[in-house]
């Protein structure tokens, strides 16, 4: 691991544990075992470090969602694939996943919220696009694509959060059936 990647990983760990605003540059350099000039060489500022973490982690996550949302002629299959991305990311990259959610729920004028906003907006647009694409097949979606995208994201994120609280996430996510049952629960709701 090079210095840049080490700094990204150490900062992400600290931001996840204590929140972006609570962590100082000094704590990051101490945790990473580097000097301040080294951090500033790569990132220029704490905000620059945050932007780099988000690009490093959110870009591949969003690309996976985009790729899964494009290649199916069946809404259920598309939603299952997207659900599996959320579930696997929460399992394999727990710190990133929950840091991403925490930033979204931070104060709207906070610089950390402003940094995550474009990535989460993109995720929401990708999900809205999935529902838009299937509107001709499912007439009751017309004009409600954003509502369905919000509901779908809400179900996934709440499910993952509750399982983390119960320390049951890894067990639940290793089952292929979880994504399928979440999607079918959601689909039943939109058709009722």
TrEMBL record:
The keyword DNA-binding applies. Keywords: DNA-binding. The lineage of its organism: Bacteria, Bacillati, Bacillota, Clostridia, Lachnospirales. PANTHER family: ACREF/ENVCD OPERON REPRESSOR-RELATED, ACREF_ENVCD OPERON REPRESSOR-RELATED. It comes from Anaeromicropila populeti. This is Transcriptional regulator, TetR family. Residues 24-43 bind DNA. GO terms for molecular function: DNA binding. The keyword DNA-binding applies. Residues 1-61 form the HTH tetR-type domain. It holds the Pfam family TetR_N.
């Amino acid at each position: 691991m090079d210095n840049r990647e080490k700094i990204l990983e150490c900062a992400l760990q600290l931001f996840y544990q204590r929140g972006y605003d609570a962590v100082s540059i000094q704590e990051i350099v101490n945790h990473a075992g580097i000097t301040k000039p080294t951090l500033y060489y790569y990132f220029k500022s704490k905000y620059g470090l945050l932007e780099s973490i988000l690009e490093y982690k959110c870009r591949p996550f969003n690309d996976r969602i985009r790729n899964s949302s494009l290649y199916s002629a069946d809404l259920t299959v598309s939603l299952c694939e997207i659900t599996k991305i959320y579930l696997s990311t929460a399992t394999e990259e727990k710190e990133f996943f929950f840091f991403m959610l925490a930033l979204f729920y931070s104060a709207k004028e906070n610089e950390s919220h402003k940094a995550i906003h474009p990535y989460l907006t993109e995720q929401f647009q990708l999900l809205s696009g999935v529902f838009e694409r299937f509107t001709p097949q499912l007439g009751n979606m017309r004009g409600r694509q954003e509502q369905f995208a919000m509901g779908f994201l809400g179900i996934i994120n709440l499910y993952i959060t509750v399982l983390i609280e119960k320390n049951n996430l890894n067990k639940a996510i290793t089952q292929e059936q979880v994504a399928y049952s979440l999607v079918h629960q959601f689909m039943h709701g939109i058709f009722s």
